[in-house]
Every structure is written in C-alpha cells, then in structure tokens.
Amino acid sequence: MEAEPILATRNLTIAFGGFRAVDGVSLIIKQGTIHALIGPNGAGKTTCFNLLTKFLAPTSGSIIYKGRDITSLRAADIARLGIVRSFQISAVFPHLTVLENVRIALQRQRGASFDFWRSERALKAFDKPAMVLLEDVGLEDFAGLPAGQLPYGRKRALEVATTLALDPDMLLLDEPLAGMGHEDIQRMAALIRHVAANRTILMVEHNLSVVAALSDRISVLARGRLLAEGDYASISQDPQVIEAYLGT
Ligand code: ADP
C-alpha cells in the first residue's frame, strides 16, 4: 500500500527583501519514510527547516501536517504536534551524566517540575524510560559518564536520544553526520535507520553516499527552488541536478 503523506508543503516561499531563499517549494513527505533534502550551499535547505518548524514564517504558501494546515501555528505548537528538529531540545548539559540528560528531556516532555532535587523518588521514576532510550541509541554503556566527556559522535547520539524523549512522529535532522569520522557515520546511519522503523525522518545531509543508502526519497533544492525529486538513482542522473552541483 502507498504510504500516506505525513507532511506536505504547497508553494512554500520566503522572501528576505526581494530575495526568495525558498521559492514555491512543494514537498510531499510520506509517512514512515526517510526523506532527504539535498542541494548545494545556499540552496535554501536550512531555511526550509526553519519554515517547517516555524522558526521563520513563510511569505506565502502552506504547510500541511497529517491533513491539517499548520502554517500559522507557533514553533512550540508544532513541536507539540510531533514535528521535532534535532537541535531544538538538544542542549546537552555537559556536567550532568548521559542518563541525567535524557531524564531531564523526559521530565520536560511529561511536564514534570524542574525542581527534581526535591523528590528523589520522582526523579528515579524517569530512570527506566531514560535507560530504554539510551539502549535505543546505543549509549547504555555511557549512562554514568558526564555528557561533556562523550566523544563527538556519541554526543550526537545523545542529542537523538533527548529528541526521541519528546516522542516525535516526525524528526527533522540537520546534517546528522556533519564532522563525523567513518565509524561514527556508520553508527549514526544505523541509528537513523533504527529510529525510522516507526517514525518519519526528513534530513538535510551532505554525505551523498549515506543519503543514497538511507533515503526512500530525495528532494533536490537549488537557489530556493525544487529542482528534482525521486530516488537516488533517478536524481543522480538528472542533468539539472548534476549541473547544480558542478556549477557551485
Ligand atoms: P542551505 O541551508 O541550503 O545552505 P540556507 O537556507 O542557509 O541554504 O540559505 C539560502 C539562502 O538564503 C542563502 O543565500 C542565504 O544567504 C539566504 N538567507 C538565509 N537566511 C537569510 C536571512 N535571514 N536574511 C537574508 N538572507 C538569508
């Protein structure tokens, strides 16, 4: 059966002065897929993410999530509906342990009070679900380590865990592999695939071999416009896509 769209944009546009950083972009992201947004620098990918999460308001066009027009909602409401961007809540507290970081994210999600020092028992109630999340991202062996001491790749995995604490239906990942070495890339790619088993993922990523391996569908932006869309085999042979990449 064809997957239903979870998110769609119609002619999404934002102009800064006279310059359209995102220009009439219509995307369809299907439920349960890994969808990549790629394109050369300055193509409008980050701006697109900012529009989807309402960090920026579009000049025109609309955003539909699960059949509902969410264009005029505020950022917090969009997160509450289940669209969460990885860095949104990914402030990692370096002096707290890895487990404590996830516990705080869970507490926040469940609306628990922040003055958790008052009740050790209330705090402990989050230990088990926090541990489950750490196992989910392969960090269970690091639970007691201060987060600041995590190697870079593991820190990014912790960001994913704190994001998952919000239980999003749709995860927006902004360059999840940036700055990683080979081993961390492989680990993060496996994690993205794992997370996508019951969630939809939209990611901006420059590592095209991983994009090719992970993505069900790829949208290519260039100069604010949607240039091509399809699986990797089709977009990588598209002359316009080749030109956009070579031309920068
Ligand atoms: P990408 O993420 O694909 O590299 P961006 O979305 O960051 O591209 O930027 C797209 C274009 O929009 C760039 O030319 C950038 O300079 C411009 N841009 C982004 N944000 C603003 C802004 N707030 N004001 C003016 N121009 C902006």
Outline of this structure?
This protein has two domains: 1-81 and 171-186 and 200-248, Rossmann fold; 83-167, P-loop containing nucleotide triphosphate hydrolases (Rossmann fold), CATH 3.40.50.300. It contains ten helices and eleven strands.
Low-confidence stretches: none
How much helicity do the residues have? 25-40%
Figure out the total of helices: 10
Structural class of the secondary elements?
A: alpha/beta
The dominant shape is globular
**Briefly, what CATH class of the largest domain?**
Alpha Beta
Strand order of the largest sheet: 7-8-9-4-10-11
Q: What ligands can be seen in this structure?
A: adenosine-5'-diphosphate
Mean pLDDT: 90
- Residue share in β-strands: 15-25%
How many separate domains make up the residues?
2
Helix/strand order: EEEEHEEHEHHHHEHEHEEHH
Named CATH topology of the largest domain: Rossmann fold
What integer value in Å does the Rg equal? 19 Å
Protein name: ABC transporter ATP-binding protein
InterPro entries: AAA+_ATPase, ABC_AA/LPS_Transport, ABC_transporter-like_ATP-bd, BCA_ABC_TP_C, P-loop_NTPase
Organism: Dongia soli
GO molecular function, one term: ATP binding
